[in-house]
Design goal:
The chain is an alpha/beta fold. It is 48% helix and 13% strand. Helix 5 links the parallel strand 5 and strand 6.
């Protein structure tokens, strides 16, 4: 377990690294610290340590390995997504999964747990930096190989698991806004900030969306949003509420 201090600007993206291999953490730390807009503020060897450190230092992003001894990255991410830290520090870090594994089970487990991004360790250093910036700003990041697998999987799902057009029309305007932002990869905290509502309100809307559309989880809601054309690959994030649109 390690917590670091640095004299660099407080405006940098504060990154916590969680991986059970010290050499991997050292390599990641070297890559992150070469970027002028981000800084490594802590290191952890498992999910439990990551949660403990995050509660104390409030990182913006946790780069989390999926498979670690003790508490793995998926379980740690799930606890973060369940607002385990919100009552303590009023802030939930964005989680970027970084792993050698691209199997479907690991991907779905991580995304369902609340991860904002999934990047393979074979990625280029520039991809790591771009992914950290993306999730820190409230957006999602998927490695191209992972995105292709998800799209192929959604395309091969039987149509019966997706809502009919009349079901989509049952959603209120606010429920459609929430679904759109979730499809863009935003966490509940990010959706709440974007719409200027509470996280409890977002959870309520998400529950109603799942019921109205006959879906079981967040992953199915994202698939439905794309399949029904509510959002398309390449679409930009709508402007936050209460702020002027520059377009």
């Amino acid at each position: 377990m390690m917590v670091k201090t640095d004299d660099r600007s407080a405006h940098c993206i504060h990154v916590l690294l969680a991986d059970d291999e010290p050499l991997v953490r050292a390599g990641l730390a070297m890559l992150v610290t070469t970027e002028t807009d981000m800084i490594v503020v802590g290191e952890a060897s498992d999910g439990g340590q990551a949660l403990e450190i995050a509660a104390r230092i409030r990182p913006d992003v946790i780069v989390m390995d999926v498979r670690m001894p003790g508490m793995d990255g998926v379980e740690a991410t799930r606890r973060l997504a369940e607002d385990a830290l919100v009552d303590i520090v009023g802030h939930t870090p964005a989680v970027l999964m970084l792993t050698t594994f691209d199997d479907d089970e690991a991907v779905y487990a991580a995304l369902r747990a609340g991860a904002c991004g999934y990047l393979l360790k074979s990625a280029a250093p520039s991809e790591l930096a771009a992914a950290i910036r993306s999730v820190a700003s409230g957006n999602a990041w998927l490695a191209p190989a992972i995105a292709r697998k998800l799209i192929a999987d959604f395309a091969n799902r039987p149509s019966s698991v997706l809502p009919a057009p009349e079901q989509m029309r049952r959603l209120t305007h606010r429920e459609r806004e929430v679904l759109l932002l979730i499809a863009h990869g935003l966490t509940n905290e990010a959706v709440a900030a974007h719409l200027i509502v509470s996280q409890a309100t977002v959870r309520t809307h998400l529950g109603r969306i799942l019921v109205k559309l006959g879906l079981h989880d967040r992953a199915q809601a994202v698939a439905a949003a794309y399949q029904c054309g509510l959002v398309r690959p390449g679409d930009g994030l709508p402007p936050p509420k209460g702020r002027p649109c520059n377009g």
